[in-house]
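lol so apparently i was supposed to do this last week
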Amino acid sequence: MTIGVLGGGQLGRMLAMAGQTLDQRFVFLDPSPDATARHVGNLSVGAYDDEEHLSELARKSDVVTYEFENVPVTSARFLNELVHVYPPPRALEVSQDRVVEKEFFARLGIPTPAFAAVSTRAELEAAVARLGLPAVLKTRRFGYDGKGQCVLHTNDDASHAWDAIGSVALILEAFSPFEREMSILSVRGTTGETRFWPLVENEHRGGILRRSLPQSNAWTPKLQALAEAHAARVLEELDYVGVLAIELFVKNGEILVNEMAPRVHNSGHWTIEGSETSQFENHVRALLGLPLGSTRMIDHVGMLNVIGRMPLHADVLAVDGAHLHVYGKEAARGRKIGHVTVRAKTREDLAQKLETLVPIVDESLAARD
Ligand code: AMP
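anyway here it is w/ adenosine monophosphate bound
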C-alpha cells in the first residue's frame, strides 16, 4: 500500500521509517523541496491548497494522513472525496481554531481554562474584566511553539498586546497556575479499538518542548484514568482514526485541557524505543485498519529534544541506553533538529543519565562555543 502524507517534516519521516517495516510506501506533499521526509519517500513539492498536487497525491495513495495541523481543512475535505483521510478532517478543523476547540471540549464536558473570543479592543477589555488577570492572549489560529501569544499581567499589557497581535482573531484565556504540563497520547483504529500511552510530563522553555518524561514522579493512576476518559470522549466524538495528542495543565490532581494535536506528537517520540509499539507504528496500523499494538512502557524512559545545534553523535551515544535521532534538517536557532531517547532500569539511573545528557544536548552550552 501507499500512504500519502500532507507535510514532509520529521514527523512524516519517522512515520515512514515505522511504516517501512510493514513494507508500506510513502508519498509526501510539502511546499519545501528540502522537506526532510524526501529521504524516506517520494516528495511532491507543492502548496497544500494546490488541487492538482492534491489530486496527484490522492491518485498515488491508498490512504492519506497529515503530520502538520495547519494544512487547510478544505484540502483535507477535497482529498477525502477521493481517498480515505485519517484522522478525519473534522479533527483538523476543530484543532485549528482555539475558540472552536475549547467550545468543543466544553460541549464534551472536558474542563479547560476559562476563555473568551476577542476580535475588538473593547471585547479584549470586557474579557479581561470578566476573566481577570493574569491571562493569556493568543491568536485563534496558526499558533505553535508559543508563537502569537502574550501573558497579560496588567491592563497596560493588554493594550500593548492588542497593538502587537490585535490584527487577527484572538482568544483570551484565564492564566492556569499549573504545577505541571502533561500530555496524553492515544490511538484509535478503524474498528473503534482504542489504546493510550502513559501520561507524559513535558517541560517547555521559550515555548518549545525540551524534555518529556513518561510516567514521571507526578504520574498517578487517577490522573491517567482522568486523562484517558477525556481523550476517549474526543476520539469517540470525532470517530477518530490515528494518533491523537492532548496537552494538559495539571494542578492538585486536577486536569485542565489546553489543546489537542490530531497527529503524532513530539511528546510521543520516546515511544520509538520506550514503548512496546511506537506512536508512529500505531498510527500506520490505524491507517491500514490493522490491530493496534500494546502501548506498554519499557523500563524508565526520558526524551530530550535537540534544538539549534547537533551535539557530537559520539558524546550522546557514549551514554548507555541513549538513542540519537537526527532529522536531517539544517540547524537553526530554536529549530528542532533531532531528539535523544534514553532508557534505564531504575528511576535513579534514568535521572543520572539525563543529568549526563542535558549539557551535551543543550543549545545554551553550544551557543558558548
Ligand atoms: P499553547 O500554544 O497553547 O500550547 O501554549 C504554549 C505554552 O504557553 C503552554 O505550553 C503553556 O506553558 C503556556 N500556556 C498556554 N496557555 C496557558 C494558560 N491558559 N495558562 C498558563 N499557561 C499557558
